[in-house]
Every structure is written in structure tokens, then in C-alpha cells.
């Protein structure tokens, strides 16, 4: 059968675009995914042993300040009110993350008030005087000073990204706020945050629930593209370098590996995510999903936990690393993509961008708007 649109990837980008095309344009869409489930890396699943819903590819917290995104999401789910807090272990002591007044006072053994802490950190930063930071390490030292960087950021980042932090872009550090008050909300700037009340997979089932949408799972685009026909466009949300057969070389990516354990007792670590900042601990963090749904009040005296290890799996990239070497290749791939009229490449893997979920939804809504404009013009 020939569909109007073919979408590669049933993750957030692909599913939102499919929903829009089906419900607004009333056109047919085939959505394919090489995995055996929809939802991409947002996929959630209920553990049959404990009844706890967990995020199969690592903890995902929805957060946004975009009214447009929130209005869209509200049509498919309610959020459960969960607010994300993260702790980090350094030298066997637990600290709050992102770095806030509590972290600073615990680390330096002080009792600073906000203004004292601010002035103290200015002095710490001045000791290294990085005027225009050009990489992750310089950016971090220019924001928090070297001692905090070396305690909480340097080894964690080297472990997580498997490269020297000097090779990462400054923007990756900019994801982490620093504050001079006791607010330990990870996403303090987000107007809305939480976990979908019925889990993430439920949203995808709703997004893709249309007579106009056909979903084909366990279908690898690269093994099947010769049999895939469309009238209008191919919308591809997989890795951009793979789409072009790595013509300009491979971009750098990272994946994560999660090791599952069952803890006997209803609470293993008292929080949903505990980071491990030091290099002698091989895992980067431990996830305990029961804490993501406090409203469910799980009563089972067992908790499922996941140890996260760094990994690069070329078959399954999760995060763009974005080194300076990647920039040139990415520009070449993007130029090539622009030359193809009936092709759109986007989403986190397609754009090679460290998008959060809200940015991915926004990219999908914008992509749909562009499709509509093109249709009007033609
Ligand atoms: N980071 C760190 N220590 C931490 C938390 C984060 O060094 O305890 C660094 C790390 O390099 C990470 C970046 O800050 O990739 C951005 O953190 P974020 O929480 O956004 O990462 P994510 O949750 O997406 O893995």
C-alpha cells in the first residue's frame, strides 16, 4: 500500500507528527519502528513482579515552560505533580544537585547566607579566570570554580560521556543551573513538570490511535526502505549519519546500559535518582522508579532499581556527544538533507540535538506547521 506519509521512528517526534497529520490533514501515515514497542526512549512499562511502572531507557521527567507544548500534552495526559530532585554521592557523602546553597555549605563546611555564598563562588571562579569558555570544562569552572567542578562534575562527566570534558561543548554544562538558595528542584525554571499520570506509553497509544495511522513495529527502515512507498513525504527521526550511510563519517553518540535489580524492602535509596560523582564507582547513577509516582502509593515491600552504566552502542544511539569534530560532519549531513524535497529529518537523533521532551514536541509541532504551509503554497 502507498501511504501519504511514512514516518521512521515511533518516538515522541514521530508520534506527534503522525497524530497531527492524521487528525488535522486527514492523510494516511505509516509509522515504522525497529523496536518492538512505540514510544522510543520515553517508553514506560509496568514491572510484573513489583507492579512499579518504570522508564525502560532511563528516568524521564517531563518539564516545560512552553504554553504551546503544555496545551498539547494536556490533551493526552494529566501530570502527576512529581517534582524532580537529584542527589549526588561524592566521597561517600550525599549532596544536593544541582549545586545550591546546601551543596556549597555542606561541601565547604560553611554556613553562608546567599550573598556570602555568591561572593565566595566569585572568588573561587576568579582563581581560574576563564573569560570566554569554549568547552564544557571551562564553562563549568567559569560558573562554579574548580573545587566544586572537580568534586561533582569532572569525573561524573568523563564517566558518563566517556570522553575528556574538554571535548564537550559548553552548552552541555549550561543544562545544569547553580543557585544561591536552598531550592533543590532540578527543574526550577519549568512552569510545569511531572510524570504522566498513566505513564508515558499510554500517551503514545493515544497519539497513534487513529484509523489514518498504521504502526509497524520490528521494521528496520534500512532493511525495508525499498518496499516503502509514499505520496508526499518521508519523515525520518533516526540518526542522521546512518540515513546517509555514514557518507561523511560517523557522528559521536552515547548510549546507556541499565542493569536491573530487585530490592527487598519498599524503599532502596529514598529518591528517584542518585548520581555517583566519583570515578571509582563504575555506574553513573541509580534510578528507583517507585518514587516517580508517589500518588500510586505502591504497597509491595519490593522496589525495582536500575544501575546506569555508560555505553556506546552503535546500533542504538541515545545522546549526541557534539564534539567540535562532529560539527563539520553535521553541517554536511544537514546540507544534503535540505536538497531532498520529499524528505524531513528531525527529532533528537535526526537533528543531532540534546533535546528534552518538550523541545522534541515543539520541533514536531513546528514541523507540522511547515508541512501545512508547504501544502498551502502548492
Ligand atoms: N552533570 C554532572 N554531575 C551531575 C549531574 C550532571 O557532571 O551530578 C553534568 C553531566 O555532564 C551531564 C550534564 O551535567 O551530562 C547535564 O546534566 P543533565 O542533568 O541535563 O543530564 P541528563 O539528565 O540529561 O543525563
Structure description:
The chain is of the alpha/beta class. Among the domains are: 2-38 and 208-248 and 321-377, NAD(P)-binding Rossmann-like Domain (Rossmann fold), CATH 3.40.50.720; 86-175, no CATH class. Helix content is 34%, strand content 20%. The chain has helices at residues 12-25, 67-74, 101-108, 114-126, 136-144, 146-161, 170-174, 200-207, 221-224, 240-243, 324-338, 347-351, 357-377; strands spanning 3-8, 29-32, 44-46, 53-55, 62-64, 86-90, 93-97, 192-194, 213-216, 230-236, 253-264, 273-276, 285-287, 302-311, 319-320, 343-345. It has a seven-stranded mixed sheet. The longest helix is centred in the last third of the chain and has 21 residues, at 357-377. The radius of gyration is 22 Å and the shape is globular. Residues 88, 97, 152-153, 156-157, 160, 172-173, 175-176, 275, 277 line the site of uridine-5'-diphosphate. Uridine-5'-diphosphate is lined by residues 88, 97, 152-153, 156-157, 160, 172-173, 175-176, 275, 277.
Key structural traits:
Rossmann fold; seven-stranded mixed β-sheet; single chain; 34% helix; 20% strand; alpha/beta; five-stranded parallel β-sheet; 378 residues; binds uridine-5'-diphosphate
Label the overall shape: globular
Ligand catalogue: uridine-5'-diphosphate
Number of strands: 16
Largest sheet: 7 strands, mixed
Helix content: 25-40%
Sequence stretches where pLDDT stays below 50 over 5 or more residues: none
Task: Output the CATH homologous superfamily of the domain at 2-38 and 208-248 and 321-377.
Answer: NAD(P)-binding Rossmann-like Domain
Counting helices, strands and paired strands, the structural category is: alpha/beta
Give, in spatial order, the strands making up the sheet with the most strands: 7-6-12-13-14-11-15
Overall pLDDT score: 96
CATH class of the domain at 2-38 and 208-248 and 321-377: Alpha Beta
- Alpha plus pi helix count: 13
The helix/strand series, from N terminus to C terminus, equals EHEEEEHEEHHHHHEHEHEHEEEEEHEHH
CATH topology-level fold name of the domain at 2-38 and 208-248 and 321-377: Rossmann fold
Radius of gyration: 22 Å
Amino acid at each position: 500500500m502507498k501511504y501519504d506519509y511514512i514516518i521512521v521512528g515511533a518516538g515522541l517526534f514521530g508520534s506527534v507528527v503522525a497524530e497531527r497529520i492524521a487528525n488535522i490533514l486527514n492523510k494516511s501515515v505509516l509509522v515504522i519502528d525497529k523496536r518492538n514497542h512505540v514510544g522510543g526512549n520515553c517508553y514506560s512499562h509496568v514491572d510484573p513482579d513489583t507492579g512499579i511502572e518504570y522508564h525502560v531507557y532511563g528516568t524521564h521527567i517531563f518539564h516545560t515552560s512552553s504554553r504551546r507544548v503544555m496545551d498539547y500534552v494536556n490533551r493526552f495526559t494529566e501530570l502527576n505533580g512529581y517534582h524532580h530532585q537529584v542527589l549526588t554521592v561524592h566521597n561517600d557523602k550525599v549532596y544536593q544537585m544541582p549545586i545550591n546553597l546546601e551543596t556549597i555549605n555542606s561541601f565547604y563546611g560553611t554556613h553562608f547566607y546567599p550573598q556570602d555564598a555568591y561572593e565566595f563562588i566569585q572568588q573561587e571562579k576568579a582563581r581560574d579566570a576563564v573569560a570566554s569558555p569554549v568547552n564544557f570544562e571551562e564553562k563549568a569552572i567559569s560558573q562554579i570554580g574548580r573545587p566544586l567542578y572537580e568534586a561533582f562534575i569532572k569525573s561524573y562527566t568523563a564517566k558518563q560521556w566517556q570522553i575528556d570534558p574538554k571535548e564537550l561543548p559548553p552548552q552541555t554544562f549550561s543544562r545544569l543551573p547553580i543557585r544561591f538558595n536552598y531550592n533543590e528542584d532540578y527543574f526550577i525554571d519549568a512552569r510545569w513538570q511531572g510524570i504522566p499520570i498513566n505513564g508515558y506509553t499510554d500517551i503514545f497509544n493515544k497519539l497513534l490511535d487513529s484509523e489514518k495511522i498504521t504502526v509497524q513495529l520490528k521494521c528496520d527502515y534500512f532493511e525495508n526502505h525499498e518496499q516503502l512507498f509514499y505520496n508526499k513525504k518521508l519523515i525520518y527521526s533516526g540518526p542522521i549519519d546512518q540515513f546517509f550511510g555514514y557518507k561523511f563519517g560517523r557522528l559521536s553518540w552515547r548510549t546507556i546500559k541499565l542493569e536491573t535489580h530487585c530490592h527487598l524492602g519498599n524503599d532502596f535509596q529514598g529518591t528517584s535518582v542518585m548520581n555517583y560523582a566519583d570515578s571509582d564507582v563504575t555506574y553513573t547513577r541509580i534510578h528507583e522508579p517507585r518514587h516517580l509516582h508517589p500518588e500510586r502509593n505502591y504497597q509491595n515491600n519490593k522496589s525495582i532499581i536500575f544501575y546506569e552504566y555508560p555505553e556506546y552502542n552503535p546500533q542504538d544511539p541515545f545522546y549526541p556527544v557534539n564534539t567540535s569534530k562532529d560539527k563539520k560532519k553535521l553541517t554536511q549531513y544537514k546540507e544534503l538533507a535540505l536538497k531532498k524535497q520529499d524528505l524531513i529529518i528531525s527529532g533528537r537523533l535526526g537533528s543531532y540535538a540534546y533535546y528534552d521532551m518538550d523541545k522534541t514536541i515543539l520541533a514536531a509541532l513546528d514541523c507540522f506547521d511547515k508541512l501545512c504551509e508547504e501544502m498551502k503554497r502548492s
